[in-house]
Amino acid sequence: MTTGSQFVLLAFAFLCIGNLILTHSYERPPKRGTLFIPPVGPDKMRVSWVTEGDVTPTVKYGTSSGNYQSSATGTTSSYKYLWYKSGKIHDVVIGPLNPDTTYYYVCGDDSTKEFSFKTTPSQLPIKFAIIGDLGQTGWTNSTLEHILASNYDMLLLPGDLSYADFIQPGWDSFGRLVEPLASSRPWMVTQGNHEIERIPAVHGEPFTAYNARWHMPFEESGSETNLYYSFDDRVYKNLKNNCGPIYITIGDGGNREGLADEYDEPQIPISVFREASFGHGQLQVMNATHALWTWHRNQDDVAVAADSVWLTNLSTDPACKA
């Protein structure tokens, strides 16, 4: 049977996610689909992929191309959404892995298609590529091309991934779209409102596709749900505090809703600069006290930073100690 190539990496863990199968008039996708890798603890990755039929959920991997010295076996699952039925979603955790190292791997029973990824460094500096509201448009392609041309260690996507919005084959096409990046660097994602996909009285379970396809390391963080795998800090009474955390909001990946080119008037003092452009951000954590945030527009060369700001950790500042 023919195989497709869709891959997505998530920091410290692998996930080979693949194509889903829809009944009725939907054309069945290739045998294997999206691959992505999320982190699982400090030295493991999760590999997930989907096949049309039953295969052994095994991943073989090693540090030399074609020489797979290690292997791991995982689990297989699937999900239904209305008349749509997914393929077999295989989930395998591999490791322990060395930091800042390139690994080569093959999934399941097919050893002809080799992929590779690079683990994150164990020490600073580290660079994150950050996008939000990605979707599947020509603008999305431009954003991904810019990120692919940059030198980053991990990609963060904080919500609104595929914009499938109930149309489940959209998750399959999204996997194919992001595979070139997701198969070579770790990805960490969170859910947004477009991942809910709940239909009252028809399909009451929210986040069905997201939870089945994008398995984050929530168990390792002590959480009971895939929707929550980290800590939670809220703004205290909307209080402005120079010693407080800095929040970065980003949502210009390229989704079908288009540019947000309408603004509230008059411009409030905290809104220093306003522009409607698609692009992505990069966060370079240099050391324990300093990080550099840059924003890169799609209409510019990837090396051009349209905006930048240095962030300083004030935890050791006497003025910020309780």
Automatic annotation (TrEMBL):
GO molecular function, one term: acid phosphatase activity
Signal sequence coordinates: 1-23
Entry-linked InterPro entries: Metallo-depent_PP-like, MPP_PAP, PAPs-like, PAPs_C, PAPs_N, Purple_acid_Pase-like_N
TM annotation in the entry: none
Keyword list, A-Z: Hydrolase, Signal
SUPFAM superfamilies attached to this UniProt entry: Metallo-dependent phosphatases, Purple acid phosphatase, N-terminal domain
All copies of domain Purple acid phosphatase C-terminal, residue ranges: 244-301
Domain Purple acid phosphatase N-terminal: 42-119
Gene3D superfamilies cross-referenced by the UniProt entry: 3.60.21.10, Purple acid phosphatase-like, N-terminal
UniProt protein name: Calcineurin-like phosphoesterase domain, ApaH type
Organism this protein belongs to: Dillenia turbinata
Lineage: Eukaryota, Viridiplantae, Streptophyta, Embryophyta, Tracheophyta
